[in-house]
Amino acid sequence: MVQPVTINISAINKQITVPTGLFINNEFVPSVDSDELIHAVNPATEEVICSVVAASPKDIDIAVAAARNAFNTTWGKNVTGFERSRLINKLADLIERDAQELAELETLNNGKPVKIARDFDIGDSVQCLRYYAGWADKIIGQTLEVDNKSKLAFTRHDPIGVCGQIIPWNYPINMWAWKVAPALAVGCTIVMKPSELCPLTALKLSELVKEAGFPPGVINTVPSFGPVGGAALAAHPDVDKVAFTGSTITGRKVMEAAAKSNLKKVSLELGGKSPHLVFESADLDQGLPVRSPRSLCWLEASGTMPGISCELLIGPLSAYATTLARTFINLLVSKVKDQVIGGGYDVSSGGGPVVSKGQYDRVWGYIEAGKKEGAKVILGGTKRPGKGFFVDPTIFTDIRPEMRIVKEEIFGPVLSVGRFRTEDEAIFLANDTSYGLGAGLHSTDANQCMRVASALEAGTVWVNQYNMLNNNVPFGGKKQSGIGP
């Protein structure tokens, strides 16, 4: 057994106990062959919070064996949908009970404001678990007519088996729930590898898994470095499916390892470069100031929260549209300025630091590239003094399609604003990317909304809103943004 540690959160004068071992078979254990540790860092202060055990490939083998044994004995086809539903709902109840403490721990390790972690991420995670709990006892097949006199065919849905799940740092609890809930509902068992940058809440959630009453081995949590634990899961011959959320580059490696090992099933949610088209009929008074700039700002203002790197295009180039563009940009800048980017325990903060020094340097590399390539900075673009990986929201105009800030995913608080001449050009520019995760458009012309939404090459297209997710609506990407919902 590995003993938990008590963490002091000085900002709120509170202590939280956090497990630091690998969670395998409902116990927190050390590595069987490694002394390597993952050092969890507070991105707001750059201080080490604590250190947790880093899983080795042999630890991954043990976790997978535990998951396989549970699948064959106490889970899988050996438990009813009613029982799966009961346990998933119990887990949701416990997360809801501990929402405040989980949010505080999420803020400490990830940087996002407590109110966002609690009310959005954890609130949605609870609803996600309950949504899939509702499906657990409603999994049905079909009867098929073959020959009514002598033959009957029927289909049934079986669980895939052991699922290796690799999640990123931007929504640590949300991503955990999105991966865990559907797998549990259908009877799969899980080996979960959280991001090495944000492992603490996944370990804390593992305590609740045991408290909820799940049999040992159904959910196993193995913090590890990506090239070690992630690679081992993707290539493991006894893992039946791997689900990965992260960069397109790593997604390719996961898919290759899955193919070379046992041709395991793969779900990939990868990078994005979300275009937003603002047409001249857009209602600034009713829609955009309330919803879109705030949504764009909320998403991009904190490096801990971006789901899709954004590019905003306004047009066409008529006299009215030029006035609209100027008005919209002023509103956008005003809304972004209203956002307080600060410590996550400050109730006034609407965004926090980016998650790590590596991500901080990456984002600043793009900001400097934008300046060097001739884009105009109309907000931000200068570094803060002092500690913490804070990047103030930066907005560029005067962009060109070939610029790095336009073509590549930044995954930070950087927004590029450009113009288009015609609807066709807008669609071309929006689709001129290797990504296809999400997109948005803003118009009061219903025909235009339907026409353009259909033409945009993205898994999700929002109309006159953005980033509104629902658990009963599929979410997935086209092109190099992934495979599967």
What does this protein structure show overall?
The structure is a single chain. This protein is α/β, with parallel strands linked by helices and 485 residues long. It has helices at 57-73, 81-97, 99-110, 114-135, 172-186, 200-212, 226-235, 248-261, 292-300, 319-338, 357-372, 404-407, 423-431, 446-455; strands at 5-9, 14-18, 22-24, 27-29, 37-42, 47-53, 143-147, 151-154, 162-166, 189-193, 219-221, 241-245, 265-269, 273-278, 309-314, 340-341, 349-351, 376-379, 394-397, 414-419, 438-442, 460-463, 482-483. Helix 1 packs across helix 7 (226-235), helix 2 runs antiparallel to helix 5 and helix 3 (99-110) crosses helix 4. The protein is globular.
Structural classification: alpha/beta
Beginning-to-end CA distance, first to last residue: 37 Å
Name the overall outline. Answer: globular
Overall structural domain count: 2
Q: How would you characterize the largest beta sheet?
A: 7 strands, mixed
C-alpha-based Rg, rounded: 23 Å
* CATH architecture verdict of the largest domain: 3-Layer(aba) Sandwich
Number of helices: 14
The strand order across the widest sheet is 18-19-20-15-14-21-22
- Spans of at least 5 consecutive residues whose pLDDT stays below 50 are 287-309
What fraction strand? 15-25%
Helix fraction bin: 25-40%
CATH class of the largest domain: Alpha Beta
The CATH topology of the largest domain is Aldehyde Dehydrogenase, Chain A, domain 1
CATH homolog superfamily of the largest domain: Aldehyde Dehydrogenase, Chain A, domain 1
Mean residue pLDDT: 91
Give the number of DSSP strands. Answer: 23
